[in-house]
Design a protein that fits this description.
The structure is a single chain. By secondary structure, the chain is mainly beta. The protein is built from 1 helix and 6 strands, in the order αββββββ. It has one helix spanning 2-10, and strands at residues 15-25, 28-36, 43-50, 56-64, 72-79, 86-94. The chain has a 3-stranded antiparallel β-sheet with strand order 1-2-5, with no helix packed on it. It has a 3-stranded antiparallel β-sheet with strand order 4-3-6, with no helix packed on it. A hairpin with a 5-residue loop joins β3 and β4 (56-64). 20% of the residues are buried.
């Protein structure tokens, strides 16, 4: 019982909610989102930029320090290899 709990918690997804994106220029997109990680837990998010055919043209994994805040508003900038049309959060997880 206990060991299974430890494993399931270690790979917990962190809830997130995209709040918007901004096309900065032809090679940059800024993604805004809120995350709700467990308190005092370090976590990471994978953020991606997509082109008009929904192909991935930019990608970053960003790690965040632990905090007592339950909800955190984040903004990340992604450099792209081609013109992006949107930016999204692919996933977030506890690290």
């Amino acid at each position: 019982g206990l060991s299974w709990l430890t494993i399931s918690n270690a790979i917990d997804d962190v809830g997130f909610n995209e709040t918007g994106y901004e096309l900065v220029d032809a090679r940059t997109v800024r993604v805004s989102f809120q995350v709700t990680p467990p308190a005092e837990t370090t976590f990471a998010c994978a953020v991606q930029a997509l082109d008009e055919d929904f192909g991935i043209v930019g990608w970053r994994v960003i790690e965040y320090p632990a905090s007592a805040q339950i909800t955190r508003a984040l903004v990340e900038t992604i450099r792209t290899v081609a013109q992006p049309t949107t930016g999204t959060v692919q996933s977030c997880w506890a690290t």
